[in-house]
Amino acid sequence: MPALSDVPPSHPRYASLMTREKVVEGVERGITGRNGLIAQGRGEAFDYLIGERTTAAAAEAERAAAAMLLLAERPVLSVNGNAAALVPGEMVSLAKRIGAPLEVNIFYRTEERVRRIADHLRSFGAEEVFGEEPDAAIPGLDHARAKATRGGIFDADVVFVPLEDGDRCEALVRMGKRVITVDLNPLSRTARTSTVTIVDNVVRALPNLISLVEEMAGWDGADLAGILEAYDNTAILRRSVEEVITHLARSFSPLDELSPP
Q: Which Gene3D superfamilies match (predicted)?
């Protein structure tokens, strides 16, 4: 049987298989926790439900997220193990384009894994990575996720959280921060708590965000603010659920016509 890396790009599940391989490689390198494999599988299941594409609702949320990042005075990009495995270069690229630091924050924290993730980001050109020496705590959290860094997430006005993180999103919002998340489950606590929720796969959302930031970088602040004033996250989540229903209705066919996964 060929290795996953030998699967040809013509394979109908090529993109999904390569994404899985990146997460597995992250576990093997000590970057991603084993629980990240479960999170990846759950996300992939929700991705099926939206047709493995960036929906119109997700595209609108990504546009609002780009505007929010460009308007932020102290944006910070949070990185966990799965994000480090899946989109490290894209996270570094986005950080450079908006002048933001990266900060490593993981639920199943070990200092060794934090260091490995930070070094991994630096290998992609990251110039400022926080998280190895946290000196503050996010109020209302009793586990390692409370650890934060002054000058980083603790002092940020906008925090970009690329993957599900419900209790910390709630805590950050209580601190008065605006939170942007990428979460394929529109019903999750993360999705419902965040200021802007992008219901999309992180491997699509990050390139989209980078392109939008590049496009909108020269815009007038009033135009960017207008995008945010018109944005309604509850309506976006509702539309995201409707997208799932519509996709399932269009995709339904008798069982004998369904292709194997």
A: Phosphopantoate/pantothenate synthetase
Task: Tell me the mean pLDDT per 10 residues along the chain, length 261.
Answer: 60 73 83 79 88 96 98 97 93 97 91 94 96 94 88 97 84 96 94 96 97 97 97 98 92 56 50
| The predicted structure's pLDDT at residue 12 | 66
Query: If you classify domain 56-242 with CATH, what class do you get?
Result: alpha beta
φ and ψ of 162, to 5 deg: -75, -10
Is 167 known to sit in a ligand binding site? no
- Cα–Cα distance, 98 to 213 (Å, whole number): 8
List b or e across 192-212, with b for residues whose CB sees 16 or more CB atoms inside 10 angstroms.
Answer: bbbbbbbbbbbbbbbebbbeb
42 is in an annotated binding site: yes
189 is in an annotated binding site: yes
63 is in an annotated binding site: no
Residue 1, Cβ density class (10 Å: 0-12 exposed, 13-18 middle, ≥19 buried): exposed
Residue 2 confidence (pLDDT): 43
pLDDT at residue 253, as a whole number: 58
Residue 183 known to bind ligand:
yes
Tokens at residue 120, please?
A: 């991994």
